[in-house]
Specification:
InterPro entries: Chaperone_Skp, Skp_dom_sf. The protein is mainly alpha-helical. Helix content is 80%, strand content 3%. Strands 1-2 form a two-stranded parallel ribbon. Helix 2 packs parallel to helix 6 and helix 3 runs antiparallel to helix 5. The chain starts with a helix and ends with a helix.
Length: 263
């Protein structure tokens, strides 16, 4: 209901507001951004390692319960009613323990969700800061999250600012490691990227130029490698020829000395 109310309110507000001014609405894909964030990969690995250990514990417990059930099935005919009930109670107790452990680790309020929240929060804070900066600089009225529960029936790619957010996070981390001179060069590069974001035609033109440049550089590298191979092959051929000549010369000298000795 909250989601429907929000969408309806946003739609009504957009229509009414558009009478006097244009409304800028952008969107992000939080999952995409997190996958691109450098710190997220490490946090994700840590979480997966913990989850893997918990799954192993669960499998061990399941195997123990399975063995208890198999043993009871085998020995049931030899046991008294009291002993059977005692064994069944033990199995029920173990199963409840297993269920509780699964809920504790993987439930809707379990350790996995809590740990994920703790590990991801600093990265999400970076993302939200970047979103706020972009929204203020480029005057967005709304920025939605495509990967959330909010249903977006259609979204034009040109309104997707996910890559801009990723770049903003990367830039922040790079600046801390650059000298003043490098920072100026980085700022010029960033200004160029921001200009391309505003002008899709310019961005497409730049993309074509970059692709052509990459193709030229690849061709030059291939030609350079081919030249180096030819030179190397010639060197090898010359070396082999020299060795052959020396071998022939040495063989001739030995032959002369042998024939003189016989005389």
């Amino acid at each position: 209901m909250k989601k429907i109310f929000f969408i309806t309110s946003l739609f009504i507000f957009s229509i009414s507001f558009s009478q006097s001014a244009s409304v800028r609405i952008g969107y992000i894909d939080m999952e995409y951004i997190l996958e691109k964030a450098p710190d997220y990969a490490e946090a994700k690995i840590q979480l997966e390692q913990k989850a893997s250990k918990w799954k192993q514990d669960i499998e061990l417990k399941k195997n123990e319960i399975k063995k208890l059930k198999e043993t009871l099935a085998t020995e049931r005919v030899l046991l008294t009613k009291e002993l059977i009930e005692e064994r069944e109670e033990e199995i029920s107790f173990q199963e409840k323990e297993l269920f509780d452990y699964q809920e504790k680790r993987f439930g809707s309020r379990g350790d996995l969700i809590i740990q994920k929240s703790i590990l991801v929060k600093p990265i999400q804070d970076q993302v939200f800061t970047a979103i706020q900066d972009i929204a203020e600089q480029k005057r967005y009225d709304f920025i939605l999250d495509k990967s959330s529960d909010l249903t977006i029936l259609f979204a034009d790619k040109r309104h997707d600012i996910s890559d801009q957010v990723v770049r903003a996070i990367m830039r922040s981390e790079k600046r801390e490691q650059l000298s003043k001179k490098e920072q100026k060069a980085q700022e010029a590069k960033e200004a160029k990227e921001d200009l391309q974001d505003k002008n899709p035609v310019l961005a497409e033109r730049q993309k074509i130029l970059d692709e052509k440049k990459a193709a030229r550089e690849k061709l030059m590298e291939e030609r350079k490698a081919a030249r180096e191979k030819i030179i190397e092959d010639r060197k090898k051929a010359a070396l082999e020829k020299r060795k052959k000549l020396e071998a022939e010369k040495n063989g001739t000298v030995i032959e002369k000395e042998t024939s003189e000795g016989e005389k």
